[in-house]
Amino acid sequence: MKQISQLAVISLLLMLQTFCYADSAPSSLPAQPVESMVAAPETVAKTNAEIRQWYNDEVGKIPALNEQWLAEGIGAEERAKRAHEIRHHARVTARVMMQNKQEVADLQARDQEKYGNPDGPTFAYLVEKNRLKGLQGDAIYEDIIGSSNRTNREYNEKFGVKKEGQSQ
Predict the structure, then answer these.
(1) Residues 6+ apart with CB under 8 A from 155
(2) Which end of the chain, N or C, is more open, meaning fewer C-beta atoms within 10 Å of its C-beta?
(3) Which candidate, 112, 143, 108, places its Cα nearest to that of 127?
(4) Which tens digit of pLDDT belongs to each residue from 63-120?
């Protein structure tokens, strides 16, 4: 029952977020809803290591999706928004899947301190960060896309998760 409740919360969050973003960028909605690009987690309780692997697998799909979007002629800003959304949804979903709510609170506190938001960086935060680095135009968005599948090495090592390209 707890798993069903968690999935209901995820669904509600995704619907609310989609609704909120719909007003901010009505002309740039993806042809395929971002939520459908993030695989639904299984309802069986998972360890943090399994959840971390799932998260890495989800964000690891972004480069291939970006190639597809490029082939479809989608511009840099829209591709960056999509990449950010996939990672954000994976982050929120992974935290809902976690059994230890204190660990979730610790992660949210870290994100609040680092990004000013308990659920990680907003798209606006990433754009501003890149502007402050001196990036302009599409370079701002390409950097967001490029970083969207890079995950925290420390957390990956903590849970024994290896991403492709990382040394064993």
Answers:
(1) 52, 161
(2) C
(3) 143
(4) 999 999 999 999 999 999 999 999 999 999 999 999 999 999 999 999 999 999 999 9
H helix runs in 72-147, sequence order: 76-97, 101-115, 123-132, 138-147
CA distance 18 to 14: 6
Helix axes 76-97, 62-71, angle to 10 degrees: 150
- Is residue 111 within 8 Å of residue 117, measured between CB atoms? yes
Q: Which residues contact 41 (CB under 8 A, 6 or more apart)?
A: 7, 54, 93, 97
> Cα–Cα distance between 150 and 105 in angstroms, integer?
22
pTM: 0.73
Rounded to a whole number, what is the distance in angstroms from the first to the last CA of the chain?
A: 38
Query: Which residues lie below 8 Å from residue 156, measured CB to CB, with a gap of 6+?
Result: 52, 56, 162, 163, 166
Q: Report residue 34 as tokens.
A: 């971002």
Closest by CA position to 91, among listed 119, 57, 125: 119
Q: Decide: 149 and 63 in contact? Cβ < 8 Å.
A: yes
